[in-house]
């Protein structure tokens, strides 16, 4: 007997990694200052800061942005619990971390062709 083909296994970690990677590649293509920056994923930050549990850490000296998966996934209050909402939330964290790295507003990171005003 032959079983029907099974869909590929996809975990939350895989979806998180894909969302971070695609947002990071978009930003690298739009901002030359981010081309050498490493976007990394860690489960948890080493500790808390004055604002609570950080969602990311930025190091301009090391050219590195680390996104912390568990705080991003578990401490976000999403109005809807679906895949699209989770992806947008992860991508917004990537944009905000990159904006902090560049010392800019996150809304400034999109290229001019995406501005409709």
Quick gist of this model?
This protein is an alpha+beta fold and 117 residues long. It contains three helices and three strands.
Characterize the structure shown.
The structure is a single chain. This protein has helices at 12-30, 69-74, 83-102, and strands at 38-42, 56-59, 64-68. With 117 residues, it is of the alpha+beta class. The protein has a single domain (12-106), classed as Zincin-like (2-Layer Sandwich), CATH 3.30.2010.20. A 3-stranded mixed beta sheet has the order 1-3-2.
Attribute tags:
single chain; 117 residues; alpha+beta; Zincin-like; three-stranded mixed beta sheet; 3 helices; 12% strand
Q: Gap between N and C termini, in Å?
A: 60 Å
Oligomer: single chain
Unreliable spans: none
Helix content: 25-40%
H/E element sequence: HEEEHH
CATH architecture: 2-Layer Sandwich
The number of E-state strands comes to 3
Silhouette: globular
SSE order and pairing:
Layout: H1 12-30, E1 38-42, E2 56-59, E3 64-68, H2 69-74, H3 83-102
Helix pairs in contact: 1-3
